[in-house]
Amino acid sequence: MEMRGDDLRSSMNVLAAVALMLLLLIVGPPAGAAESAKKKGVVRIATIGPRPPQVAPDTEPQKIVDRMIAHWRGRFAQVLPDKPDLIVVPEACDRPSGLSRDRQLAYYKVRGDQVRDLFARVAKENNCYIIYSAVREMPDGSQRNSSVLLGRDGRAVGIYNKNHVVIEETTESGILCGRDAPVFECDFGRVAMAICFDLNFDELRLKYAKAKPDLILFSSMYHGGLMQAYWAYSCRSHFVGAVAGLPCEIRNPLGEVVASSTNYHDYVVADVNLDCRVAHLDYNGWRFRALKEKYGPKVTITDPGYLGSVLLTSEHDTIGIDQMVGEFNIELLDHYMTRALKHRHEPGNME
After folding, report:
1. Which residues in 247-281 are b (16+ Cβ under 10 Å) and which e?
2. How confident is the model at residue 35 (pLDDT cuts 50, 70, 90)?
3. Residue 91: other Cβ atoms inside 10 A
4. Which of 20, 88, 238, 310 is deepest in the core (most CB within 10 A)?
């Protein structure tokens, strides 16, 4: 019996589908398919910025340690009922005010890892990540100003050593500059860290702009002002600031404040959706409309105004923003800027 054209094409499509299924069973899905299908979730972040406790200059070091442990137990108690995934604290979080340099060093000798051990227990007991930002003594006797990322099991996920220390930190306290700018993998995304004076230096920022972590965690005694927004935008990252005695703010990759502590409360807890990308407005207008028409409230398009860029965020349970961007061929900001820069350097395009 002779097959009609439609029947023949239908049979061929069925055979092709069966062949593809068999091929996938034999060799598996294309490289990177499983990774691209993963959906980043929402992370609940707590940032706490109390002023350091004042102590009398002649207070015994172990009594200072005990006071610091009690201080941080109380501060953690403010945010733990919200069950955060991550808690960020200020720079030198267990350094009291009111001590001379010599008394500080004596206190650090007695403190050892006692305060860090408290942070680790809190992390393990509450199944959350915690930043412990403090001065650490190294085996050679030198010091580092560090942020230690403690995991949900209380163990250290990674350590960042402040790259750009204030001059007197070295000349008076023996604190050396860190060398590396690591990015650490957490179960909710990729995390980088910066400490206080770091925020003034492009050398570190450009490393993170290249790495594009999901979160930059900033422990500090100094706020940084517009630099917080600039770091967030230039690195295409959410930015969490924990600043002693000043507003603690969480910013999105457009540099906008999405949550902040107040003059009444030195902490804030907020949910942050890391499944997002920054795209430029040029050439994308109709694509944004098509994206919104299909996904409706399952995608958020945030326009801060004046910037020419928007933040695309997937609110979908299973479809991530990268899949949405690929589906509508949306040009991301970095791709657009790279293309524009390449155009400038092509022959005949420059005076």
Report:
1. bbbbbbbbbbebbebeeeebbbbbebbbbbbbbbe
2. very low
3. 27
4. 88
